[in-house]
Amino acid sequence: MPCGEYFTSYESRMGLFRWRIQRVALVLALPIPFILPLLGLGGGNVSLLSQMFIFAIAVLGLNVILGYAGEIVLAQGAFMAIGAYTTSRMLTTGVGLLPSMAVGGLMAALVAVAFGLPSFRVKGFYIAISTLALQFIAEWFFNNSRAEWIHGGAQQQIPSDIGLIGPLGSLGGDLSIYYLSLVAMLFFAILSLNLSRTGIGRTFRAVHENDLAAAVLGVNVFKNKLLAFAIGGFMIGFSGGLYAFYIGFISPDYFTLALTLEHYVMLLFGGLGRVWGALLGVGVVTILQDILQSILQSVSAATGLNATSLVSVFFGMVIIIVLAVEPKGVLAALGQLKEYLRKWPYAY
Predict the structure, then answer these.
(1) Rounded distance between C-alpha atoms, residue 96 and residue 93, angstroms
(2) Can you tell me the distance from the alpha carbon of 120 to that of 124, in angstroms, rounded to the nearest whole number?
(3) Which end of the chain has fewer CB atoms < 10 Å from its terminal CB, N or C?
(4) Residue 119, Cβ neighbours under 10 Å: how many?
(5) H or E element, residue 165
(6) CA distances (Å), 251 to each of 134, 144, 158, 200, in order?
(7) Residue 106 — pLDDT band, cuts 50, 70, 90?
């Protein structure tokens, strides 16, 4: 606890921003992402930040399922695809982007709950196989021309000029996508932070640590696992619909197992079970990936070799190093560094 600060109620003790320095940092830092595009930030950088915000929502959803409840999910790409294709179908009805993405999130949540049903009998890597099956089923389904009457076709163009709700709030251009993605990311980040402080979040943690002990204490383990699948699936499906609007075109090739592994890299790099760790992981990995791809594309053009495939190798090595040095992620390592600097030069 910082010197000179103390709590006088349980509400202040449980606040999101408990210390004065945190509140000052929030006031100073929150306006920065809103004014960045107005300071001459290039269109490519604005687009990169928009993608970062969208992926942050998906990784936060993965964090609810894996980081909070401890359920291994290997269908991140499938959930995003379900949200994207559902959003595309809903946009044809003229309800607007926001209701379409909400329906896409609900559809992904329903599918996530359906494929989370085996958690009643199995757990760990066995439930991971169930969700991995969903990934392959989704890729086959959205590539199947016989199912076009359901999903509307494997390749779909998303309209760029639509309303936020019905015809109201016309959207179009990089700036509108940027601000929409930013506000959505902040909303789901606050939702995740508050979820971890509620009874539901604490129940998820109990199930994660030891589901048998949680059941002995009266926790309905199966119900809470499905609830985690529903909440996380909604967030991932919502991000899938937003990602479809961002790229303006959807194809099953955008939602493969590689996307799932990429989001796992982001979550594990930042810190499993930590909202700020997930956001940090998405930001660092996205920026590093963009820089590496630019460098390797130059190398490929100069040598004639396909050097861009080394990006996956690089991040694979990064994850091995992070898990070996600090399994709790970079955020935990930064916390240890802060504690060391706070006590230095005294060892007590």
Answers:
(1) 8
(2) 12
(3) C
(4) 24
(5) strand 162-165
(6) 17, 12, 11, 36
(7) very high
From CA 35, how far away is CA 245, in angstroms rounded? 23
Higher pLDDT, 30 or 86: 86
Residue 96's φ and ψ, nearest 5 degrees, are 105, 170
User: pLDDT value at position 227?
Assistant: 94
Task: Give the residue from 85, 63, 81, 80 showing the smallest Cα distance to 72.
Answer: 63
330 half-sphere exposure, CB direction, 13 A CA radius: 20
- 222 within 8 A of 69, measured Cβ to Cβ: no
* Three-state DSSP state, 170: strand
Please tell me the distance from the alpha carbon of residue 280 to that of residue 332, in angstroms, as a whole number. 11
Between helix 76-91 and helix 125-143 the angle, nearest 10°, is: 40
3-state DSSP: the chain helix, strand, coil percent, rounded to 5? 75, 5, 20
* Structure tokens given for 263: 């989001």
Residue 257 per-residue DSSP state: H
Q: Where are the alpha helices (DSSP H) in 123-210?
A: 125-143, 148-151, 174-197, 199-209
Q: 249: burial class by Cβ within 10 Å (0-12, 13-18, 19+)? A: exposed
Instruction: Provide the phi-psi class of 49: left if phi over 0, else alpha when psi is between -120 and 50, else beta.
Output: alpha
Token readout for 111 is 């599918």
pTM: 0.92
Can you tell me the distance from the alpha carbon of 201 to that of 195, in angstroms, rounded to the nearest whole number?
A: 5
Q: Specify the DSSP element, H or E, that contains 341.
A: helix 330-343
Residues belonging to the chain: 348
